[in-house]
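Please, structure for the following, as C-alpha cells.
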Amino acid sequence: MQPVLFSLLVLLAAGPQLQAAAASSDPTARLEAAARSNDVAAAQQAIQDGADVNAQGGGGQTPIMAATLSGSTDIVRFLLDEHSSRVDTSIGEKDGYTPMHGAGFQGRADIARLLIAAGLNPSDRHRDGFTPIHRACWGRQQRHTDTVRVLLEDGKVDVNELANGNTPLDSALGSGNEATVALIRSKGGRTAGDIAMDREL
C-alpha cells in the first residue's frame, strides 16, 4: 500500500471533538482522547474509572495505536509499563496495521524503541507485504530516518528485506530522503536490482 493510502490510518481528531471526548462520561472515550493528547494523568483516571484499554475507537484504533500515530510517547510508555498484562499490541486498526507499523509510517523513533523493548516484532509483515522499516523509509523527514535507525539497532531487521520487490533502500530512494538513503547504505543496504544482478553472476 502506498503512503498516501496508508495515511488514512491517521485519524486526527479536531480540537472540539477531542475536547468533547476528554469531557465525556464514558471512560473509554476519555482514554482515547488522553492517548491522542499524551495526557497520562487523564489516561490513568480513565482506566481507574473502567476504560477498556483495548477498545477500538476512531479508525478502529486501540488507545496504544492512537497514541503511536499521535506521537504520544508518554502514553505508550505508561500503557506498556503499567498495563502490559492487559494491553494487546497485536490488535490492528481497521486495515490491520499494528502499532509497530504505525511507528514506522509516522516516524516515531522513541515509540518504536519502546515497542521493540516490549517484545513487538520489528519485522512484522502486514498482509500488504510491507514491514515497518519500509514504511519508515517512505517518510521524508528526519524523524523517519531516526526510526529506521532504531529498527536496525537490534539486528532483528534485515536491511535488505524484500517487500513486494523492494528493499528498504528502494523505498528510501523513492521517497528522496537522502539521510535515510545514506544510513541504509552505511548498514549494507542495497537495491533489489543490485541483489538480483549478483544472483545472476
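The CA atoms of residues 107 and 144 lie 4 Å apart. DSSP finds 13 helices and no strands in the chain.
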